[in-house]
Design brief:
Catalytic activity: 5-phospho-beta-D-ribosylamine + L-glutamate + diphosphate = 5-phospho-alpha-D-ribose 1-diphosphate + L-glutamine + H2O
Protein name: Amidophosphoribosyltransferase
CATH superfamily of the largest domain: Aminohydrolase, N-terminal nucleophile (Ntn) domain
Oligomer: single chain
Pfam families: GATase_6 (PF13522), Pribosyltran (PF00156)
Strand order of the largest sheet: 3-2-4-1-10-9-11
Number of strands: 21
Helix content: 25-40%
Enzyme class: transferase
Bound molecules: 1-O-pyrophosphono-5-O-phosphono-alpha-D-ribofuranose, glutamine, magnesium ion
Domain Glutamine amidotransferase type-2: 48-284
């Protein structure tokens, strides 16, 4: 009896029950599901999260725990999610679809995902479309059977696609950069020409991949009947860690985007995957190696500002503590500016949720009352990367309510973690004024966001950013504030870096327009904007469903999944068949 696993499984069972009982339906059926899953434009999205799990006891299924882990990473991506497990005879089982974890998985689908190891993904697209064909993990049958889950974004997809077509002769069936990444890995493994590969071959293949592509990638992968793999790009832009827990005579192993997954599953010894490192875990060994040429380690600072859960520790830095420090640093800036402007503040009010930690520290530092003036409807999710500006606007009002008592006749200092499109600030400033605030001053824990993110956060279009091409006064005017105060970049970096001085640089490209990987040209940015600005995204989605680009050899055929568009999001493939195909709908 594997005690560790058994305990873990009982715990998982309870949590899974909780996740699943959050559903508003009992018997999933096609018609019921169409009500349960919100229309696409209502889904709130952030980024992506990845996970990998290998249980010491292969007779225990990994899927329930992967499902639990994905629900803990839900804040990273709410557009689609998926799990692939590997069971008896090295066979893969997958379930992936558009929707949140609680909507995509139920007891039946989880019970079909057999096998003691697997990988999972929660997605918000930064390449391609929201088409369910691009939900992850991705599968490719040759060589050996590989699945991959990716958080990040490649900036050289166009040349990689050409390479796949013209040189590797690999068919790429979607517009997802993650499918390219998987095929790059597969192509490199193919080069070994071996009947059976070993760790050495895998390290060589991933090392090759790291030379051949540019961008951000924190990935988990699985080789049929072999083991699970994690690797992180040479700049370590996106987070990824590993943990283990005792299980009988051996250990269970976990890879996850954030450490909270390890905490919840009773794993310990959380360790970050190093930039440029690959880790391979089989039932008998753990092998790790730096496979890339040394590069500047530059984790994305925006994980600390907004994305990650406050109870996560990323690259040795507590997200919570870094946000407290951001509040302290911002207090000093606010004090200075208020003095210069001769303005006094009566009360500090956070914009829930992310800014609360920083706002409380700021209020304490300035010796000002802290009040929760906005109450949030917790059933409406994160706003800033919600698709479509109209929808984002509407949702701020649906989400937040201003308590008149806390605003009336007061000079109010609203604290937010960041101002992206300005949708939230614009709406809440108006709400504060509507309930009688005298002056509304906004303080942001992050500096003005003026540039596109190309590394896995869907902020591709500079024109959509309220700070792009505007100075502080113009931003205040655009959002209707009496005054806006921004954290300085050195203060933001210091707030995070003080907890791990060994990190010398952070990716701050959204503030500076400097991209650590190189290769981000103005031409590329314009191309990205032409593909992914709010106003064109939906057209891309429509185009995806039927278009052929007519380029190259095998070309990129019509989307194989078109036939199920509009059907239930509950898709379970008993085994993976044709790659990326949704062949069984429940
Ligand atoms: O300027 P905008 O485009 O409106 O984006 C910025 C806002 O979006 C995020 O909040 P969100 O509601 O997504 O999540 P939260 O509840 O975690 O704060 C962020 O915390 C800011 O409040
Ligand atoms: N946000 C992400 O990390 C997205 C991963 C990948 N680029 C996709 O679009 O699916
Ligand atoms: Mg917010």
């Amino acid at each position: 009896m594997q005690t560790g696993s058994a305990k873990g499984t009982a715990h998982v069972g309870r949590v899974l029950e909780k996740i699943l009982s959050a559903k508003t339906h009992q018997e999933p059926s096609l018609s019921a599901l169409s009500f349960v899953v919100p229309p696409r434009s209502f889904l709130l999205n952030i980024m992506c999260g990845v996970l990998g799990l290998l249980l010491h006891d292969p007779s225990v299924d990994a899927a329930p725990e992967i499902c639990e882990g994905l629900s803990l990473l839900q804040h990273r991506g709410q557009d689609a999610c998926g799990i692939v497990t590997c069971g008896h005879k090295g066979r893969f089982y997958q379930c992936k679809a558009n929707g949140m974890v609680r909507d995509v998985f139920d007891e039946t689908s989880i019970s079909r995902l057999t096998g003691g190891m697997g990988i999972g993904h929660v997605r918000y697209p930064t390449a391609g479309s929201s088409n369910h064909a691009e939900a992850q993990p991705f599968y490719v049958n040759s060589p050996y059977g590989i699945v991959l889950a990716h958080n990040g974004n490649l900036i050289d997809s166009a040349s990689l696609l050409h390479f796949m077509d013209a040189t590797a002769h690999r068919h790429i069936n979607t517009s997802s950069d993650s499918e390219l990444l998987l095929n790059l890995f597969a192509n490199n493994l193919q080069q070994t020409g071996k009947f059976r590969i070993n760790e050495e071959d895998i390290f060589t293949a991933i090392g090759g991949l790291m030379k051949e592509c540019t961008g951000a990638y924190a990935c988990t992968a699985m080789l049929a009947g072999f083991g699970i793999i994690a690797f992180r790009d040479p700049n370590g832009i996106r987070p990824l860690g590993m943990a283990s827990r005792k299980s009988g005579t051996g250990k269970d192993y976990l890879f996850a985007s954030e450490s909270i997954v390890a905490d919840a599953g009773g794993f310990s010894e959380w360790e970050d995957v190093k930039p440029g490192e690959a880790i391979i875990i089989t039932r008998s060994s753990v092998s790790r190696r730096i496979v890339a040429q040394p590069a500047t380690f530059a984790p994305d600072i925006f994980e600390f500002v907004y994305f990650a859960r406050p109870d996560s520790v990323l690259d040795g830095i507590s997200v919570y503590r870094s946000r407290m420090a951001m509040g302290d640093a911002l207090a000093a800036e606010v004090e200075k500016v208020l003095k210069e402007q001769n303005i006094s503040v009566d009360v500090v009010i956070p914009v829930p949720d992310t800014s609360r930690v920083a706002a409380l520290n700021l209020a304490q530092k300035l010796n000002l009352p802290y009040r929760e003036g906005f109450i949030k409807n917790r059933y409406v999710g994160r706003t800033f990367i919600m698709p479509g500006q109209q929808m984002r606007k509407k949702n701020v009002r649906r989400k937040l309510n201003a308590m008149a008592l806390e605003f009336a006749d007061k000079n109010v200092l609203l604290v937010d973690d960041s101002i992206v499109r300005g949708t939230t600030s614009r709406e809440i400033i108006q709400m504060a004024k509507d309930v009688g605030a005298k002056k509304v001053i906004v303080a942001s824990c992050a500096p003005p966001i003026r540039y596109s993110n190309v590394y896995g956060i869907d902020m591709p279009s500079r024109m959509e950013l309220v700070a792009h091409g505007r100075n502080t006064e113009e931003i205040a005017q655009a959002i209707g504030a009496d005054l806006v105060i921004f954290q300085t970049l050195p203060d933001l970096v210091a707030s995070v870096r003080q907890f791990n001085q060994s990190i010398s640089t952070f990716d701050c490209s959204v503030f500076t327009g400097e991209y650590v990987t190189g290769g981000v040209t103005e031409e590329y940015l314009q191309h990205l904007e032409s593909l992914r600005a709010d106003n064109v995204k939906n057209m891309v989605l429509v185009g995806e469903l039927g278009a052929q680009d007519g380029k190259g050899g095998g070309g990129r055929a019509q989307d194989l999944t078109t036939s199920v568009v509009g059907s239930s999001p509950m898709s379970v493939d008993d085994t993976v068949g044709l790659h990326n195909t949704w062949n069984v709908n429940k």
